[in-house]
Design brief:
Blueprint (H helix, E strand, L loop, with lengths): L2 H5 L9 H15 L2 H19 L20 E5 L4 E9 L2 E9 L4 E4 L12 E5 L4 E9 L3 E9 L4 E4 L12 E5 L4 E9 L6 E9 L1
Antiparallel strand pairs: 1-2, 2-3, 3-4, 5-6, 6-7, 7-8, 9-10, 10-11
Length: 205
Amino acid sequence: MQFFPQTFADGLNLGSLFTTLQRAVAWSRRTGRSRAALMLLGALCGHAVAQTLTPAWQQQSPSNSPSARYIHAVTYDAGHGQVVLFGGFGGGGELRDTWLWNGTDWTQLFPANKPPVRYAAGFAFDETETQSVLFAGTNEITGNLDDTWAWNGTNWIQLFPAASPAMRFFPMMIYDYAFQKIVMFGGGQGSKIGDIYLGDTWVWQ
């Protein structure tokens, strides 16, 4: 076990973590000590994360960027490794543009299909189906919405579920990894925030 501190732990940080994992797997295969390797890697990873993750905001200056806006829909698409942004309100009106963030820059996409203009929509990534689900929101043309759309990485697809929540804006949506379903709670209805508060719970299957 003296092999570990000298070979694996020296200068360990998140940047070298992948290399460390490769070396540990190779060592465990040669020696048959897979359990010991996994235990040590858990300790080393925890140590590396504790040392590396210092809470701080860092302003970015991407060469491309969406226009200024608020109450837009944003989620992380784990299936395609990118942040997805849709719509919102800015520049005096509602928006319906789609942007992707790759960690360093924004790229606007022009999919063949896209939801109508909206802001204050619910948006969450569905790990089971590997797609991001957009629900509801509101706009100044039709008012509160109750439509469901899925982003598959390249295009928007409207979905027509047999049962659907009532129209609303500002619903809170998140993916529940334990039950592998998107959970949605609450939101509001009406022409202004606070006209009607909702307290219903829905899951997307």
